[in-house]
Amino acid sequence: AVLLGKALEHPHALNGLDPEKQQDRIREAREVYLRAIEADGKNQDGYIAWAESFLVAHRQHEQGRDPFEGALDYLDEAQELLESALEECGEGATLRRLLGSVLEAKGGPDAAAAEYEKAIALAPTDRLAYACLAGLRLRRENSPERALEVIDREVKACGDDDETLLSRAFCLARLGRKDEAAATVRAVLHRVV
Question: Which residue, 190, 142, 138, is CA-closest to 167?
């Protein structure tokens, strides 16, 4: 059921539709998520899909592409939904990471960082949780040092992948450690070619 909802509101499915038809499709998708939650309140998938839908809508609103024209406070709705999911379903790394994203978008970097850390504690190899936390350190705190600490924790827990290494190189360059940054980029290029 959740996959049907995601298909209904996928950007490719909405392209070319007038705003009213987009609204109808998105409402239909959210009804699908609601039915999934009602069918099994302990299943996190419906909550996660619905919260992701609100986050996407918030980003579209910020970019001036909101089919609902700001009729909903997407972030408050997403936060309430995720908090309900945590009550109903118990702890979940994806729920915590999404709650962190919501809190970050609402302007609460400390609360967001705490949620990202909880997500990492629940799923120590969740690369996306590390990426969210490192990104917060760079965007909100302008702290490449703290972002690099997070990236190094990720490499220790998950191993290195090209994207993580490139993020590490970016932080090293921001810190003025250009030789290390260049060596890291070369290592990635060497693995790719």
Answer: 138
Q: 173: which 2 tokens?
A: 């360059």
Residue 76 CA, chain-centre distance (Å), reads 16
Provide the token pair at 75: 């972030």
Each residue's pLDDT tens digit, 169-190? 999 999 999 999 999 999 999 9
Angle between helices 162-174 and 144-158 (to 10 degrees): 150
**H-state helical runs in the chain:** 2-8, 11-14, 19-39, 44-62, 74-89, 93-105, 109-122, 127-139, 144-158, 162-174, 178-192
What CA–CA distance (Å, rounded) separates 149 from 16? Answer: 44
Helix (H, G, I), strand (E, B) or coil at 99: helix
Look up residue 128 and give its amino acid.
L
CB neighbour list of residue 181: distance below 8 Å, 6 or more residues apart: 169, 170, 172, 173
Count the alpha carbons within 13 Å of 76 in the hemisphere toward its beta carbon: 4
pTM, two decimal places:
0.81
Total length of the chain: 193
CA 140/CA 9 separation, integer angstroms: 30
Cα(80)–Cα(98) distance, integer angstroms = 12
What gap in Å lies between CA 143 and CA 11, rounded to an integer? 34
Rg (CA), the chain: 19
Say what the pLDDT of residue 75 is.
84
